[in-house]
Automatic annotation (TrEMBL):
Domain N-acetyltransferase span(s) in chain numbering: 2-204
SUPFAM superfamilies per the UniProt record, alphabetical: Acyl-CoA N-acyltransferases (Nat)
Native organism taxonomy: Bacteria, Bacillati, Bacillota, Bacilli, Bacillales
Organism of this sequence: Caryophanon latum
UniProt-listed InterPro entries: Acyl_CoA_acyltransferase, GNAT_dom
UniProt-recorded name of the protein: Benzoate transporter
GO MF annotations in UniProt: acyltransferase activity, transferring groups other than amino-acyl groups
Amino acid sequence: MYDVQKLTLAHIPQLQTLQQQVIDALPDKTMLQPLDESELRFILEGNGVMIGLFADEQLIAFRALLEPPIDDEHLGRDIGHANLDEVLYQEISNVHPDHRGQGLQQQMAQHIMQYVDTNKHKIVCATVMPFNIASLKDKFAQRMHVAALKLKYGGKLRYVFAKSLVEETAWEDEAIVVPMGETEAQQQLLRDGYFGVSMERRGDGWFVLYKKRTKHNFA
């Protein structure tokens, strides 16, 4: 049984420790874009919300939402959304290696989204590295979809996920299935008006399913 808490500035040392434990356990350290102390502080000082899961008073998982500054790297620009103030980010999500496989990312996602004011924020966005399977599954399970695939964070390839918080998205039945490693083919589909809506494993490979929307519910 885990204790869920809304985190404060006092939790920064524990957050930094947990982030490092997660990074140390990754076979590919580039899979995670950690938050430095100033970024953690920015969220916890009122520019978003962060929740943590505690086991025996030890922080074993956390998840963050961020009200991002309006800058050239804003994800709203990547998805072509006109009103950047309406965009909220799903920021970093970390689970201690000893507690993986228990669906904690999804539990935290359901809990933290209760803090969202949909009168203010209409779109939620996130970035995920291709082949970061756990994080990709997390985003698709929340019914987020791939709206862009491009270089972010100084040249790192990332899927840009998006989801309307105020309206359900409906998809056409026809799907185009593309190997996750075929970057250019996916980028062309995205330019042609398709969105990545799910993923599946076929043999030893991972594939992304792309569909078009039946209606246009956000820019």
